[in-house]
Amino acid sequence: MDFEPKLVGFLCKWCSSAGADLAGVSRKNYPSNLIPITVNCSGRIDVSYVVRAFHDGADGVLISGCHPGDCHYNSGNYKAWRRVALLKHVLEEFGVNPDRVKLKWISATEGEKFAQTIKGFTSEIKELGPGPYNDARERE
Amino acid sequence: MQEKENKLKVGAYWASSCGGCDVALLGLHERILDLLEGADIAFWPAATDFKYEDLKSYKRNELDITFFNGGIRTSENEEIAKLLREKTDLLVAYGSCAHQGGIPGLANMSDKSTVFDTVYRDNPSTYNPEGTVPLERSEFNGGELELPAFNERVKNLEGVVKVDYTVPGCPPPPELTQNFLDLILNDDLPPRGSVVAGEKTVCDECNREWNKKSIDEFHRPQEIEIDLEKCLLDQGIICMGPVTRSGCDASCPEMNLPCKGCFGPPSKVDDQGAEMLNSLASILQIGEEGKALESEENVLANLPDPIGTFYSFSLANSIFGGKVEDGGNNERK
Amino acid sequence: MTGKPRIGVFICHCGENIAGTVDVSSLAEEIIDYEDVTFSTDYEYMCSDPGQNKIKEAIEDEDLTGVVVAACSPSMHEDTFRKVAESAGLNRYQCEIANIREQCSWVHGEDGGSPTKKALKIIKGTVEKVKRNIPMEPVEREHSDKCLVIGGGIAGIQAALDVAEAGNEVILVEKEPTIGGHMAQLSETFPTLDCSQCILTPKMVELNQNLNIELMAYSEVRNVSGYVGNYEVQIERKPTYVDPDACNLCGDCEDVCPVEVRDEFNQGLTTRKAINIPFSQAIPSSYTLDTEACLGLNPLRCSECADACDADAVDFDESSEFVEEEFGAIIAATGYNLYPKEEMGEYGYGKYDDVIDGLQFERLLSATGPTEGEVRRPSDGKVPENVVFIQCSGSRDPENHNSCCSKICCMYTAKHAKLYKENVPDGNAYVFYIDIRAGGKDYEEFIQDVREEDRVLYLKGKVSKLKEIDGKLRVWGLDEISGERVEIDADLVVLAQSIVPSEGASETSQELNLNLGPNGFYKEAHPKLRPVESLTGGVFFAGVGQGPKDIPDSVSQGSGAAAKAIDLLSKPTLSHDPQVVEVEEDLCSGCGICVGQCPYDALEVNSREVAEVNEILCEGCGTCSSGCPTNALSLKNLTDEQLTEMIHATLGD
User: Fold this and answer.
1) Chunked in runs of 10, what are the mean pLDDT values of chain A (140 residues)?
2) Best mutation target, B278, B305, B317, to test chain A (most A CBs within 10 A)
3) Which of C102, C526, C640 is facing A21, going by the closest CB pair?
4) Measured between beta carbons, which residues in chain C are less than 8 angstroms from residue B266?
5) Which end of chain B, N or C, is surrounded by fewer C-beta atoms within 10 Å?
């Protein structure tokens, strides 16, 4: 059977989730592998959420926020940017392919870009194969 | 703890550790005599001649309290940890290694054979022309010798048995140990599962002055002249103080050294290193915002040992755990 | 609320919009088995009256503690469903939307995928969130009704008038002795060519007479503390040494004053006395003694002005007065300056008397100017026969000067050329330009008129060199359209000098903790959607301080800023979205990592050495909670626990 990656995407409410809505309104079809979680700001995303997602069985994690300079909260997307940069640096040390984490700037008007991003990310992760923490985290 | 007619029966054990924690117990100096007055040593291989058989002969919970230091590296460590758990009422993870895996936990960045190669074969000070490495079973003089198994990964004590109390530190400062003993003797212990140290972080005890925190470049302590009054992070030195439990009186920062995190994270943080990444990312102020990532890469280049920096003591107990294989197309278990 | 959560899940078909691709009835069947879900149903249109009633009834009958409506995007009906929840006695935040239309059914059609499976995961994640949501009520705070306007140019005047007309008290602080700003210096205004002072001075008078406005000219903002609704501001009123109530503007003081210095109002084309009035219609209508120019007050070196004053208006004993005021809102209208001469070597600006800037040329054209409106050049008073206008002087030149376009120069240069040609019909006007930017209403027509009717010669290209040769200013350039080199012997050169923010912008930005962009102009809360607001709550922008703009745009922005200020001040209390960050003090070590990262200055470490959130300032982005090393900070209703459980739920099978 084909490998169907499990993906989770953190979308900021103001730009990227609105962009995903626009993709819907414009009926842009894309794979259903990614489950979206809308947050106020991409800056709200903790490094540990990404790692937790991997432990919970995710094969890839998307973080998407407003374009640089356009953050609804002025600078949250830069914080996200830096967190992802540091995280990728550390992931690589741990042997995790940093391409499993994707940071994308998607605005409320970029429905097509949202759809393309999900398509692209899904096929990239298909190429990479299952994530390195493939047995789901034991939970208390 | 219920009143007993007899003295307290106390055990101590070292698993995978440097031995410093045993020395730290002696660091109580004459105060250890007070302890001995109210306690009998029932098991302490480093100090007294007890055999595992003696331990096995004890009844369930016969030991009132055991100080367990060191992480779980071998099958022997694990076996004794389980045995001690059975025989002890209050099992104490004593020191960073039992608490979080400690420095030996950094070996989780390498697999077993790399560790053996490094220790027994490629080490320049080791003479081993035949390339012998320890084997679990080996033939010798017609018989068979058995050694404990070397596990794939180091775990902390909590990783194999339930821990009642943790006294953190590398090693735990004598005041902290004394305080813990006082709590035992006064029957004033916090709920089981507690880490018996401060409830805040090193920053709370640190007397350095901080500014609106902002780092534009990382420095290693030897590279710059450190201002004695100012927050080390403000000076670009990665100090783990913000993500490290208090209780040490900020002894490293007070001595002009960045905190390395030996007390582990505060109670609501489960991964010390990941939390530090979050915080650091918040205060990295590099270049123009638009060019942030570009310059960040330069800054990261100045961060040569991220795991050793962020996970000095806590790797074995982190959400990452250690190095993994992600070659792609590996089958799901 | 005690006990286990009881969550109801309501799945909308949205006609065929959702039900066409998602198996809605199986969703309702499956989700009922999920932990803490005690009720589930599906319905054709949840947003319809019967749909809403279903939710209401279920909340009441099933004693639900939380509601998930799996339907369209929250941007459509979140408010609708939250009102339903409220009407059934829940807090509005105990209702959450699972977006299974825009982000699921509409995008996963026939070509594969498993929209039903995905919808179920989205719903599970939302259940995990809503069952941990806490009820919240808006944060309310008292506030001051007063507005501070910093800067008395046309933008500040307009803002002050609008706020005052709405019934709010205003204090307008102006650094200079008079209000009016640069607009008072202008001759005529493009594209209609009405006289600048004629349209400005009535506004200045109106402002001065408005009972709701207190004008503090020759004053500066010294210290600002507090936050939106409650700013405490210290204002220094500098001594003018002349009592404006006593001064009758006879001018005797000025006549006897022995000191002559550069006249700022005439851009240095003339001199003024140490005691002076900037121009005759100045407001406040009074003289000011410039102590930097005066021979000396302490010890008193000369008292000719006081001696000459019959009205006894001159008082050398005046000193600075510090006024403390509370304001609910602040409008920063700090205006601009021209890019300094010292920075511009290339066109001989500052070196040759007859190379002047646009504002100097305005003064030459002005009836109240040094030449009473006749165009005569500064060096010898001769009427120039050939005038070269150079646009983008210091603008659009990121390598050497400023990167931005000063926006107004294309238009005022055309106006200058036109007015010159009307003044000197036989003269020749040449304009060197990079592009013509005439985007305003009737602007392009104006430019065309200048080019065709006034026969101003437009040369597309930059000036390569300018040098004085035989009493003429020789200008070398290239006309890119003909491809030919051009050499003009000019009598006068006018530079459309780049606009830079006034010093007031950087001072004000420090006091109010405002961000400045790369060219030093104020940075807006959002470049498109919040152009008059700063990120500092209750601080708004008007005029060129925010970016180069012409008079109509400045006036519009003045009114825009005023509307924002009125909006704020007219509320009985300040109400704020309750989704803010809260501090668990027992966990906070006062490390201060959060303080610098909050774009709204909503965090501080208080005297008890723990972080404190100003709930009025916090906008709820939650960035600080992710950066908090002890997790002492958490964003209400989007906590670590909620997100962790949402992640787990969405990744489970």
Assistant:
1) 88 95 94 96 94 92 91 87 90 93 94 96 94 54
2) B278
3) C102
4) 587, 589, 630
5) C
* Yes or no, beta carbons of C626 and B243 under 8 Å apart: no
Q: Residue C68: which of C25, C119, C138 has the closest Cα?
A: C119
Contact present, C345 and C256 (Cβ < 8 Å): no
Range of the domain at C183: 147-238+320-335+510-569
| Mean pLDDT of the C160-168 span | 97
Q: Are residues C328 and C304 in the same domain?
A: no
Residue with tokens 């700013």, as numbered in its chain = C231
ipTM score here? 0.95
Q: Is the CB of residue A134 less than 8 Å away from at least one CB of chain B?
A: yes
Any CB–CB contact under 8 A between A44 and chain B? no
CB-based contact C593 B204, cutoff 8 Å: no
Q: What is the DSSP string of B82-151?
A: HHHHHHEEEEEEESHHHHH-TGGGGGGGS-HHHHHIIIIIS-TT---TT-----SEEEETTEEEE---EE
Give the count of alpha carbons within 13 A of C358, CB side only. 32
Chain-chain contact of B331 with A130 (C-beta, under 8 angstroms): yes
Taking residues C198-209, report their average pLDDT: 96
How close does chain C come to A103, measured CA to CA in Å?
16
Which domain CATH number covers C614? 3.30.70.20
* pLDDT (mean) for C248-258: 95
Task: Say what percent of chain C tops pLDDT 70.
Answer: 99
The answer to whether A75 faces chain B, any CB pair under 8 Å, is yes
Determine whether the interchain pair C629/B210 forms a contact, defined as Cβ–Cβ distance below 8 Å: no
Residues C56 and C88 in one domain: yes
- Pair of tokens at residue C530: 């919040």
Identify all chain C residues contacting A40, using CB atoms and an 8 Å cutoff.
579, 620-622, 635, 638
Mean pLDDT for back-to-back runs of 10 residues, chain B (333 residues): 66 93 86 81 88 92 95 96 97 97 96 92 90 90 92 95 97 93 90 95 94 79 91 92 96 94 95 93 69 62 84 94 71 34
pLDDT at residue number B1: 45
Whether A18 and chain C come into contact, CB under 8 Å, resolves to: yes
**Is the domain of C480 the same as that of C377?**
yes
CATH assignment, A7-128: 3.40.50
Q: Hey, are the CB atoms on A75 and C125 less than 8 Å from each other?
A: no
Mark residue B312 as left, alpha or beta (left: phi above 0; alpha: psi -120 to 50; beta: remaining): alpha
Which CATH number does the domain housing residue C381 bear?
A: 3.50.50.60
C482 shares a domain with C380: yes
- Quote the pTM value: 0.79
> Could you tell me which chain C residue has the CA closest to the CA of B205?
C589
| Residue linked to tokens 């010890």 | C299
Cβ separation C623–B282 shorter than 8 A: yes
Residue C589 lies in a domain: yes
Taking alpha carbons only, the member of B107, B68, B63, B113 closest to residue B89 is B63
Q: Say if residue C364 is in the same domain as residue C396.
A: yes
Q: CATH code for B8-104+152-185?
A: 3.40.50.700
CA distance C103 to C99: 6
Q: Is residue C444 part of a domain?
A: yes
CB of C632 within 8 Å of any CB in chain B? yes
Cα separation, B263 vs B285, whole angstroms? 28
- Tell me whether the omega of the peptide bond preceding residue C299 falls within 30 degrees of 0, making it cis: yes
What strands lie across the sheet with C7-12, from one edge to the other? C37-43, C7-12, C66-71, C95-99
Domain ranges of chain A: 7-128
B51 Cα to chain C: minimum distance (Å): 43
In a domain, C461, yes or no: yes
Same domain, C455 and C538: no
How many distinct structural domains can be found in chain C?
A: 5
User: C111: which chain A residues are within 8 Å (Cβ-Cβ)?
Assistant: 29
The average confidence (pLDDT) of chain C is 94
Confidence of residue C393 (pLDDT cuts 50, 70, 90): very high
Q: Which residue of C has its CA nearest to B198?
A: C587
